Please model this.
Amino acid sequence: MILYFSGTGNSAYIAKKIAGITGDSILSMNERIRKKDISEIHSENSLVFVVPTYAWRIPRVAEEWIRRTPFTGNPSAYFVMSCGGSIGNAGKYLRRLCEQKKWRYLGAAEIVMPENYIALYEAPKEEEAKRIIERAEPSILAAADIIRKGALFPRKTITVKDRIDSSLVNDAFYPLIVKAKKFRAEDTCTGCGRCVRECPLNNISLKDKKPVWGNSCTHCMACICKCPAEAIEYGTKSVHKVRYQCPR
Model:
């Protein structure tokens, strides 16, 4: 079974590509998380978690849902992580997660996809995004082939920087950066409610036909990047930046 969490479409695209090759069923973690659904999941095949990389580890919201959800059937797990550059030392923490779940850890695959984190970085324009995805295709196909065969993902060489990024930087990232208070809607907002529907944490509501953000946020960038009017900004960091959605 392939389970994915996705804000702007990169991980969803990878998950669907892999499912097309392996023939596995596919499940959106976004929907389960939004509904606070932690009911049992059964899979006869290995579990394949396809997730973005947040500060060189899997998103905490996805990890928490995995911890709380009971899984039965095949006790093996793969992790496929989309990233803008590197997954760092994410594997260390995924091994720990698998130990706690009593799963056999089959490794983590790193898939470099277009950057979407416009709260800090620049996202590529559509044509460049398509080129990045084209370059990612061999890595996606290789990961799918390994999953289909039931083999292990190759082990990543870990640098000192990887260790620092996935530990100290990740620990600082959430309390210092991941906050919703800087999101705002400009006067061009039409009140369509797309941001409300896209938020995996039910953190957005409409008040006087304008979105209002609560205190729960994972910085998935779905609200700001999927706004059809491009009316949402994140402080001054997002002004004039490309809004990214996976073009595939």
Notes: The domain at 183-234 is CATH 3.30.70.20 (Alpha-Beta Plaits). The chain has a mean pLDDT of 97.
